[in-house]
Amino acid sequence: MDGSGGEWLSTPVPTCCLENVTMENSSMGQIYEVMLQSTNISKRSPQFVGVELLQSFKPLIIPCYALVVLVGVFGNYLLLYVICHTKKMHNVTNFFIGNLAFSDMLMCATCVPFTLAYAFNPRGWVFGRFMCYLVFLIQPVTVYVSVFTLTAIGVDRYYATVHPLKKRISVLACTYLLSGIWILSCGLVAPAVAHTYHVEFKDEGFTICEEFWMGQEKERLAYAYSTLFITYVLPLSALCISYLCISVKLRNCVVPGHRTQSQAEAQRARKRKTFRLVSLVVAAFGICWLPISVFNVLRDIDIDLIDKRYFLLIQLLCHLCGMSSSCCNPFLYAWLHDRFRAELRKMFTCHRRIGIGIPANNCATASVVL
Questions:
Q1: Rounded to the nearest 5°, which phi and psi values hold at 124?
Q2: What pLDDT score was predicted for residue 306?
């Protein structure tokens, strides 16, 4: 799907087709059905050549998306499982990470299957009008929740490292903040959903689910650029500043007392490891979401800047790059942490022991703060 604030795949509709579009209000007065009675669409037009090119890459694209779904869902599920089943991990930092894992799982479940089906099905959107609006709502919401949660984690780590003596936010305040993130994400998506239409090309036998800002080009561009700023530029800046301050703090940190050479070397190794980790966090966020952000800007400035033959293919590859962030997050925020790996290892060891008849109370649970 395409969207002014979105990362979604679109089926390009020839401009001439929109001249014959008629709209009818539904009984609810909120959902619109756009019917096209008769339009002659050339199967050799550049738009449809782009569809044929996309189909030729199907054997390569589908396995890549399947890998993203497998790693993203399984990795984030394990992360959620450990957090939920370890009481000593029920703290503010891990609640943020759990919310990130949940949104990434939901992102994989909604963005990937529907995007692929929409891209490669010759009949376009085949899931009906209700699913058109529902999926168009859920897809960007999960992306925005993921982005804002990453920002919250960066700020939380900044205060924990740079201002360790300051009082951390309570679990109740964390709950309010996470609720606010979901509400804000839904609010940002509302304008796009309000301009979403289920468009049926009856004679041609295909249907699309798209945004149409008819006669509101300035409003569409304002929404597109403001959403880009709020969901990419601002979070990336916040992450860069937070982790830069963390790196400076760690570099200038001096442990009091006399240290042996081995202790000094161990401290330098920890600093290097932390610096590499925070660098990876910022780089992963910036790189994963940069292609789709640049693509959307170019499309909004002038859609002719992108060759129509490669439009769908480029858009799908950019979308795949964005979705790959759901695979990176579990590794960056959990798997690279020794304590998390140790806790996960203990849990699996515990389950194996229970399976062979060893009492469960022999399985100790460690305190883990990611």
A1: 75, -130
A2: 84
Domains of the chain from N-terminus onward:
15-251+265-348 (1.20.1070.10)
- Given the DSSP bridges, would you call strands 196-201 and 206-211 parallel, antiparallel or unpaired? antiparallel
The phi-psi region of residue 113 (left if phi > 0; otherwise alpha if psi is between -120 and 50; otherwise beta) is alpha
Average pLDDT over residues 338-363: 61
Residue 24: DSSP 8-state: E
Question: Residue 199 in contact with residue 123, Cβ under 8 Å?
Answer: no
Q: What is the pLDDT of residue 176?
A: 95
> Does residue 179 carry a pLDDT above 90?
yes
Rounded Cα distance between 208 and 125, Å, is 5
Strand pairing report for 196-201 and 32-36? parallel
Beta strand residue intervals within the chain, DSSP E: 22-25, 32-36, 196-201, 206-211
CA distances from 31 to 24, 134, 139 (A): 9, 12, 18
Q: Report the 10 Å Cβ neighbour count for 363.
A: 15
The rounded distance, in Å, linking the Cα atoms of 184 and 22 is 33
CA distance 313 to 310: 5
What tokens appear for 46 in the block?
């550049």
- In this predicted model, what pLDDT tens digit does every residue of 236-290 receive, in sequence order? 999 889 888 888 877 776 555 555 666 666 666 766 776 777 778 888 888 999 9
